[in-house]
Amino acid sequence: MKIADIRAWALSSDLAEPFAFSQGWVRRRAATIVEVVTDEGLSGWGEALCQGLQPPEIAAATVRSALRPMLIGADASRPEVLWHRMYNQSRDYGLKGAVIGAIGAVDIALWDLLGKSLGRPVHALLGGAFRERVQAYATGFYRVRGRGEGRRLAEEAQRHLAAGFRAMKVKLGFGVDDDLAVMREVRAALAGEPVTLMIDTNHAYGVADAIRLGRALEDCALRWYEEPVAQEDLAGYREVRNAVGCPIAGGENEFTLFGFRELIGARAVDVVQPDIAAAGGFTACRHIAALAHAHGVAVNPHVWGSAIGQAASLHLIAALPVAHPSLFADEPILEYDQSSHPFRRELVARPLAHESGWVAIPNEPGLGIEVNREVLAKYAVPA
Ligand code: CA
Question: Which residues keep their CB under 5 angstroms from ion ligand 1?
């Protein structure tokens, strides 16, 4: 099973209604999709996440210009070996960011291929599934004006509750006072309901404001407080973690075993959140999961990609052990983003769906998806 071709698509779609997170306005959805084709005509699919406002062309160019020439003719059935080849040969210009996203996209496609060639789901190749379904949490609460949207966000919380979600993550980072006003309204709307809350500021604050926010919300029993400070401020993370009672999470903007070694080694977080389509694919996430497990740190993947990234995340989550085993251990939960995204709905035959807030782990060979090539062509940015 030799690699005959590697293709990349940069996808982009303008949003009818832009929305904001703490770092800016999202005006379009974008994704970098990768197909690895074997000499036997089998196709595997992967994705490089467009993290934040990342343009999809960067990872696509990396795949076409750097990774494709490294891998043409290689044995496709050795994803670990090829991951190291791609990482080592891009070390002097890679290590983090879109280059690692591109490596991860190829890696995801190789695992998809391996599963298809063996007739097994990817989670079986990773050592087996710990779970057959995963609880989904609603990520949403984006802003459409900016500040002062507490009432609208409280109504959104009630919609998620009515849809069956029992866990929700609220986007904050719009100023501590506005954040606290939003949380007051959201909590009032959910009063008496068995809902677990998380917050995510997308590293909007320095240490002082991050601590002020965390302390003011100490009675919320947050499952986690995500990205309180910038990802490179590991000492700041540790200060926040030491000052605030709830678990601290981060890592959606960290990459590979080596990046997570720093984050975990600094005792900066209680929960690491590698995104499989950013951090380096299945191969890198296996390394990261083992490292986290050895340090008593929970792994709860970040999921913000297209239908391909979502499918890959489900296989990864299926194969993750819990960090702290007990009768009532915290299982990993699935980030289920509620924002508008045509590449989630249209790209595959059966898009992700939840039932009363739970999502089934796929059992078909590979990732278990069928990609619609007409949708790729429809949204592709010309190379
Ligand atoms: Ca986040």
Answer: 200
